[in-house]
Write a structure and sequence with these properties.
This is Putative transcriptional regulator, GntR family. Keywords: Aminotransferase, Pyridoxal phosphate, Transferase. This protein has helices at about 1-10, 10-15, 45-55, 75-85, 100-115, 130-135, 155-165, 190-200, 225-230, 240-245, 255-265, 275-285, 290-315, 340-350, 380-400, and strands at about 30, 95-100, 120-125, 140-145, 150, 170-175, 205-210, 235-240, 250-255, 320, 330-335, 350-355, 355, 370-375. The chain is α/β, with parallel strands linked by helices. It is built from 15 helices and 14 strands. Helix 13 (about 290-315) packs parallel to helix 15. The protein folds into 2 domains: about 25-40 and about 290-400, Aspartate Aminotransferase, domain 1; about 45-285, Type I PLP-dependent aspartate aminotransferase-like (Major domain) (Aspartate Aminotransferase, domain 2, 3-Layer(aba) Sandwich), CATH 3.40.640.10. Bound molecules: pyridoxal-5'-phosphate (PLP). Pyridoxal-5'-phosphate binds near residues 102, 129 and 176.
Length: about 400
C-alpha cells in the first residue's frame, strides 16, 4: 500500500509524507506543554448557544446559506471596527478576507504568491505551521534570528543585501511581532518603525501574523506594522482562534481590497464558514469579546507567572528562558551540553512533553532550546510538569558532564 502511494504523491505529497504530526490528545498521566491550546474552561460555549438562539429568533437562515469569502458582510464590518479600535488598522470591510482559521488564509497566500524556488524570510525561530506551508509550496525559507526585542531590521536588511548580490529577492518576510510563537518576545516600538520603513524603502512585502496581539498582560499595545507602513507593504493576518474559539475556524487576512478580491477568486473553497461567522459576529457586536479578552488576559497571565515561578524554583543553573508579556509560550534555553531532542524520550517517560527547538528552525538549529506552552494546562499541572522537566534536565546535565566511557 505505502509503496504504491510513494509513487503517487506529488512533490507536496512527498514532503508531507516525510513528516509526522503528534496527537493533540496527551496520553493519560502525561503533562503536555506541546500545543498552544486554549484554556478549555473559559471557552464561551453558553454564549455561542445564545448567538445561535439569536439567529433562530431572527429567522437568519442566510447564516446557513452560501456566502462568498469576501463580500463586506456583517463579520467583516465588526472586524473592521475591532481592527480600528484595538490595532490602529483602518480598513473597509472589503479589505478583509475571512478564512477558515488564519492557517487557511496563510495557506492561500502561499498558493497565490509562491512558486517553487522562491525565497521567504521568516523569524528564526518561527511557528512551524507557517514555515512548513512555505516549504510545502516549494519555497526556500531563510531565517532571520530574533533577540529579546524581536526581529532585528538591520539583520533583515543584511539578508536582503546578500540576496540582492545573488540577483534574488524574497517574496515576503513572515514575522510574528507580538508575543511571538515560539519565543514569546515582542517586537520593540523602535524596530516596528524601522521594519515598516525598510519594507517601504525596499518594496518588501511583510506578512504580519498577529495571532496573539489581544492577549497582552500589561502595558499599552504597540502599533502594528500594517499601520506603520506608508505604502501598503504589509498584509495583516489575524485570528479569532485565540480569543473566541479555535473550533469556529475563523481567521482573517487584511490588505488592499483588489488583492483580497483576487485571493478570494484563487481560493479552492471560495465560500466562508457562514454559520460560525454569524455566531462570531453576534459575539463581537454584543461587546462580549471585549469583556472576554479582559478575562483571558488574567487567565493566561496567571498561568504564565506560575510557569515562570516554577522554572525559577526548579530548573538547574545554566537554564534560561524568556519572560513573555502576553500570548501562550515560553522559550527555554537548556544548560550547555543538554540536547532537547535527545532528552525528549526521557521527558516523555517521566510524564512531561514539549517541542524541541529544532521544530522551529529550517536549518537544524535549536537543539539547546524547547518551547513550553502554558495556555492549555492547569496551574497544578504547570507545577508538576516543570518539576518533572527539571528532574529530567538534571539527569541529562549529569550525563553530559560525566566523562565519556
Ligand atoms: C503564530 C500563529 N499564527 C496562526 C495560528 C493559526 O491560527 P488558526 O487557528 O486561526 O489557524 C497559530 C496557531 O497556533 C499561531 O501560533
Amino acid at each position: 500500500m505505502t509503496d504504491t502511494w510513494s509513487q503517487r504523491w506529488s512533490r507536496r505529497g512527498k514532503l508531507a509524507a516525510s513528516g509526522s504530526a503528534p496527537s493533540r490528545v496527551a496520553p493519560p498521566g502525561m503533562i503536555s506543554f506541546v500545543y498552544g491550546d486554549p484554556d478549555v474552561p473559559s471557552l464561551p460555549l453558553e454564549e455561542m448557544a445564545q448567538a445561535a438562539e439569536y439567529l433562530a429568533e431572527n429567522n437568519r437562515r442566510d447564516a446557513l446559506a452560501y456566502q462568498n469569502a469576501i463580500q463586506g458582510d456583517e463579520l467583516n464590518e465588526s472586524l473592521a471596527q475591532k481592527l480600528a479600535r484595538d490595532q490602529g488598522i483602518h480598513v473597509s470591510p472589503e479589505q478583509i478576507f475571512v478564512s477558515h482559521g488564519a492557517s487557511a488564509g496563510l495557506s492561500l497566500l502561499c498558493d497565490m504568491v509562491l512558486d517553487p524556488g522562491d525565497v521567504v524570510l521568516a523569524d528564526a525561530p518561527a511557528w512551524m505551521g507557517a514555515t512548513n506551508m512555505f516549504r510545502l509550496a516549494g519555497a526556500e525559507v531563510i531565517g532571520v534570528p530574533l533577540d529579546d526585542d524581536g526581529i532585528d531590521p538591520a539583520r533583515v536588511e543584511a539578508v536582503l543585501d546578500d540576496l540582492a548580490r545573488q540577483g534574488r529577492k524574497p517574496k515576503f518576510l513572515y514575522t510574528i511581532p507580538t508575543f511571538q510563537n515560539p519565543e514569546g518576545v515582542e517586537l520593540s516600538l523602535e524596530r516596528r518603525h524601522a521594519l515598516a520603513k525598510l519594507a517601504d524603502e525596499r518594496d518588501l512585502l511583510i506578512v504580519e501574523d498577529d495571532a496573539y496581539v489581544d492577549l497582552r498582560f500589561s502595558g499599552e499595545p504597540k502599533p502594528t506594522l500594517f499601520s506603520l507602513s506608508q505604502r501598503g507593504n504589509v498584509l495583516f493576518s489575524g485570528t479569532l482562534s485565540k480569543t473566541i474559539a479555535a473550533g469556529l475556524r475563523l481567521g482573517y487576512l487584511v490588505g488592499p481590497a483588489d488583492v483580497m478580491a483576487t485571493m478570494a477568486r484563487g481560493a479552492v473553497d471560495t465560500l466562508r464558514n457562514t454559520y460560525t461567522a454569524a455566531l462570531a459576529d453576534w459575539y463581537l457586536r454584543s461587546g462580549k469579546l471585549e469583556a472576554h479578552i479582559i478575562e483571558l488576559r488574567q487567565i493566561y497571565r496567571e498561568k504564565c507567572e506560575r510557569m515562570l515561578a516554577a522554572l525559577e524554583r526548579e530548573m538547574p543553573e545554566g537554564t534560561s528562558w524568556t519572560r513573555p508579556n502576553g500570548g501562550f509560550f515560553i522559550w527555554l534555553t537548556l544548560p550547555e551540553g543538554v540536547d532537547a531532542v535527545d532528552m525528549l524520550p526521557a521527558a516523555r517517560e517521566a510524564g512531561v512533553d514539549y517541542i524541541p527547538g529544532t521544530a522551529f528552525y529550517s536549518d537544524g538549529s535549536g537543539r539547546g532550546n524547547l518551547r513550553l506552552s502554558y495556555s492549555g494546562v492547569t496551574l497544578e499541572q504547570i507545577d508538576e510538569g516543570i518539576a518533572r522537566l527539571a528532574k529530567v534536565t538534571r539527569a541529562a546535565l549529569a550525563k553530559a558532564g560525566a566523562p565519556a566511557d
